[in-house]
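Q: Got a minute? One more chain.
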Amino acid sequence: MRNVSLTRTADELESAFRTAVGGLVEDGGSDRTVTLLADARYPFHPSTGMVTNPAVIEETIEAVAENVEDPEIQLLSASTEEIDPVTSMQYLGYDTLDTGVDYTVTEVEESALSDFELPFSLAGVDDELLMINLPTVVGVKERITTSAENFQSVFDDCERPNLGTIATTAGKAPHFLTIVDGTYTFTGRPYKSNFVLSGTDMERVDAALSVLYNDLDLDPYLSADSEALVPEDLKQQMESLARELPNEQLRDQSPSDVMGFMYRKYARITGDGIPPQFLK
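A: Always. Here it is, folded:
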């Protein structure tokens, strides 16, 4: 199997996505802990492209169950100041997916990841842990956020390793997989992009992602040398995809600080989520 592959899902999400995921977790063994890291730091609607599509998570869980006997599947997301990860995932319906497979929605501190000094010990846990990183495709400040950033978001600010360390270490782990959810994307506005980018080498995946904006210098850890990691045929596919995506600048329509303060106070009292326009 190629180290990085692009699947254009179109209207065949189930078959195309299962092919990609099934190839990645083939011969996954039995009685394995499988940890899925979604991007659900705030419960935006999945069609915005700002969160991992529940349909993608559902297909991932089912594909894992087909390739790993009796897996213990844990679904995680990074926490933020605005909302705790379990609540965010519940708003998005991650806890009620129709998979026919048992899985748990949990916090990082209560998951299998808490047993390891991540990311530095990932290379040594191949017999215990299968990790699938499920980032989204969001274009901000003229660049695409990387899959390494989604994994980095698990760590507290004071403990976060740099992106290069994460990508290098994950690349050495035999069962660390990256599945980029491009079913919906956000590059200035939401767009139904219908693609999945998958690979076992995070740096190669991110190098391919960077082609969407065609500027490695704007990426936080990739360099000009990273471009050589992308096979020419894949690069051409990503360039074709880039021509389809919107590339629009967001207008500054921020609400007033006073109104934002009031909504935050309301959210703390009621436990409700903060409307996305008031996020910093």
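A: The longest strand covers residues 176-186.
Q: Perfect, thanks.
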